[in-house]
Design brief:
By secondary structure, the protein is mainly α. It has 14 helices and eight strands.
């Protein structure tokens, strides 16, 4: 057995370490080019501190040559390893990444991306592309996991996304658009306007369904005629339709189960929805425009585009935007005689409108949770608290005389 080498104080010396006759310490190593190099220090602790810096620099240089991967490369490695992900969650991650990262930050070498660089990317997305702060939070969730997987593989030394979003979200919270939806009276005015409009009457059944069922766009796109029980007046929600770009022979629509068990539910409906469904059926029979597509064995979809295909969020939102513009130009008045100006709304705003109506009708919070398909009661409570507070203030202002 080889005897351990020690210094004059009895400390063990590692390979490459020496103590000179004058008491100083030296470390000998060869760099990547094979050149002999020496470093010196007065104390062993100082020497080893310098050794660690050298080893770190050499590791980084070697990693760059061997790995030399971009953030895009790491994203694909990370996603390929997430075998337990539901398909719709996987597609959601890919959509966010492709839309907001792949052609910009994603092209950069992963070991050269700093926290400042990630923050700068988020700032660009919000200021130049004007995306919502909530969307930035979703992107942060994906990027944190991608960088963390690189850290575990020792491709990088730290996760640059770890603290990249908190300060950013706080700083830009004033830009966040919450769009809580319409109150019951404004929703009724909006529906009346659409129904009486030659330009938008065709959209009435779909908008009515959004407002009085609270369905998400992916759920609405998947509803088929045989999911509707006109006798019991219920809609069976047990699947969604989503557009997928990867993992299949070609990009297209596919059927998925709801993300959580709570997403599977039966939604009751009243006379307004019955009327809307009859209008839609009558239109399809007269015009011949009906579902002409089958998705993973599912057909007979209730709502379609003008070509008989699946409805998509971007087209629906553009139509809603035009409807709101015309509504505001018409200067409708509420019960108090005041002009009603609607804010910018989307299909998801109409889901919040459904929640508003439930609150105004004093529906039990647990019933709201089931109808909205929330797996977590806190999500429902966040909506309920905000909406109910606004409603209480409105009721107080209108009815309490002091």
């Amino acid at each position: 057995m080889t005897d351990k080498r020690t210094d004059t104080e009895g400390n063990e010396l590692y390979n490459g370490e020496y103590q000179k006759s004058d008491g100083r310490y030296a470390f000998h190593y060869k760099n990547r080019e094979g050149e002999n190099k020496w470093i010196y220090a007065r104390r062993l602790t100082e020497l080893r501190n310098e050794e660690s810096k050298i080893i770190y620099r050499e590791y980084i240089n070697i990693s760059k040559k061997i790995k030399n991967i971009t953030l895009n490369d790491q994203f694909e490695l990370w996603l390929s390893g997430k075998s337990q992900l539901r398909n719709n969650t996987r597609e959601s991650y890919r959509y966010l990444y492709d839309a907001y990262v792949r052609n910009s930050l994603g092209r950069e070498l992963i070991d050269e991306i700093s926290t400042f660089r990630v923050k700068s990317h988020y700032s660009t997305l919000l200021v130049e592309r004007r995306i919502a702060t909530e969307t930035v939070s979703h992107i942060q969730n994906v990027l944190y996991q991608v960088f963390q997987s690189a850290l575990e593989r020792e491709v990088i030394q730290r996760n640059p996304a770890e603290h990249a979003c908190k300060e950013f979200v706080r700083a830009h919270s004033k830009h966040t658009s919450k769009r809580p939806g319409l109150c019951k009276e404004h929703a009724e005015l909006f529906l009346d306007h659409i129904r009486n409009s030659d330009e938008f009457k065709r959209w009435y059944p779909l908008i009515c369904m959004f407002i009085y069922t609270g369905l998400r766009i992916s759920e609405m796109a998947g509803i088929r005629w045989n999911d509707i029980d006109m006798e019991r007046k219920t809609i069976n929600v047990d699947h969604v339709v989503m557009y997928c770009t990867r993992g299949y022979d070609k990009a297209g629509f596919h059927i998925f189960s709801p993300k959580t068990a709570a997403g599977k539910r039966k939604i009751p409906f009243g006379s307004c929805v019955v009327d809307a469904l009859n209008m839609e059926k009558d239109f399809q029979q007269r015009s011949g425009v009906s579902c002409k597509i089958s998705v993973d064995g599912y057909d007979g979809f209730l709502f379609t585009n003008k070509n008989g295909g699946i409805i998509v969020q971007s087209c629906v939102n553009r139509a809603i935007e035009r409807m709101v513009l015309k509504f505001n130009e018409a200067k409708h008045r509420d019960k108090k005689g005041e002009t009603v100006i609607l804010p910018k709304i989307t299909s998801h705003s109409l889901r919040h409108t459904f929640a508003n109506i439930l609150c105004e009708d004093d529906v039990n919070i647990k019933v709201m949770q089931v109808l909205l398909g929330h797996s977590d009661i806190e999500t429902t409570m966040n909506i309920y608290t905000s909406v109910h507070t606004d409603f209480l203030l409105k009721e107080y202002a209108e009815k309490v005389q002091m």
